Each structure stands twice: as C-alpha cells, then as structure tokens.
Amino acid sequence: MEGRRSSDEGEERGSLGFTDIWMREKHHLLYSKATHHPFILSISNGTLHISSFKRWLGQDYLFVRQFIPFVASILIKSWKEAVDNSDMDLILSGLASLNDEISWFKKEASKWDIVLSDIIPQESNQDYSRFLESLTNSEIDYPVVLTALWAIEVVYQESFSLCLKDDSKTPPELLEACHRWGNEEFKQYCCLLQRTTDRYLEKAPINVVAKAEEVFVRVLENEVKFWNMSYGEQQT
Ligand code: HMH
User: Fold this and answer.
1) Given ligand 1 and candidates 55, 59, 64, 74, which is best to mutate, with the most ligand atoms within 8 Å of its CB?
2) Which helix (H) or strand (E) holds 158?
C-alpha cells in the first residue's frame, strides 16, 4: 500500500489553502472581474473588435518583456530559498515557455501587421510593470512573489479557457491566442504553482501571508485595468 504524505492530507480532507480561500471566497468578486472581463467575454461570443485584440496584442508583448525579468528574479529566490529542486524546475519551465511566448507574439504581430517596435506602453501597462519591478527586490519574501506569479498566470489561464468552451463563438483567427493560455498543460502549470505557493504560505509568518494577500489583490486590480485598457472605449 502506498504511504500517504501528510502534506496531501489537507487536500484529501477537502480543506482549502490560502490561495483558494482568497480566490474563491474573500476576493471572489474581484477575481471573477479579472477572469470574466468583457474583453474575454466578447472574444468568446465573437463580438470583440479586432482593433481591441490588436491593442491587447501589442501591449501584452511589452508586458511579457517586463514579466520575464520578474520571473527570473523568482528563479533566483528559488535557488536561495526553495526546500527542494522541484521549485526551480517549475520556475525554469515557466521561463522557458516565455521564450516561446515572445516568438509567438512576434509571429502573431506580423500576421496582424503590427510593428512591435512602434508600440508605446500605455499607462496601465506601465503601472503594472512598475509593480512587478517593485517585487523583484531581494527583500520581498519568496511566498509573496510566488503568490504574484501564480495569480498573474491563473487569471490568463482561466480567462482564455472560457474562450475554448464548446459553446463559445471565438473567431477562428483568435483561437491560437486563446489556446496559448487556455490549454490543459498551462492549467497544470498553474495548479503546480498554486500548490507550491500554498506550501510556503502555510509555513510563513502571519505578516508574510498578509503581504501575499495584498499582492494577490494588487495583481487582480492590475489585470482588470489591463483588460480595460485593451478593451478600450469601442463597444457601446
Ligand atoms: C497582463 N497578465 C498579463 N499578460 C500576460 N501575458 C499574463 C498575465 C500571463 O502570462
């Protein structure tokens, strides 16, 4: 018979970790604002103006370029603070897929005649980047930055997976973008990030957990503003 690891027992009992309590209970409303934004809903019902998609594409490319050094800073923290090698492997896999992602943005941009070098970051994008940069500071605790990374990824995963549902009317030319973040493998990556984050939060002092919760909320607020910016004022 297989031995049961004590860390799994909480899950088997069905008790929720910090991250689940935040996303499903305490901050559920804000979480669903970030994951069910009109930008995403209008992709899935086939009504998004292509100008909005193009705006999102250019701005998100710039965002991802800022996101890479942030993830790299977590890789360094995992090297110093992780309890085993699996953390670093996980973060490294995330960094590796960002390499693919940059290539995808370049390819997708040329498909839509977008010149990426001409794109200027809008205010919401700049604010988000500044926030990420503040989290690269070596003083910021590892569980806090893991929380941020997980939250940033899970918002995109959940959002874009809505556009892949059987009853969605996502235009074929937008499916590839939705698949990038809505796919099952990315979902697994987000689940692993969540489990890792919870493991560290469980052992963290209360002030670190409080900071992580605050950062979770800040990520969601930034995500909503990013969608607002991308959506623009087009649809009436
Ligand atoms: C704004 N949030 C934003 N862009 C992304 N590419 C992700 C999250 C996920 O990587």
Assistant:
1) 64
2) helix 142-162
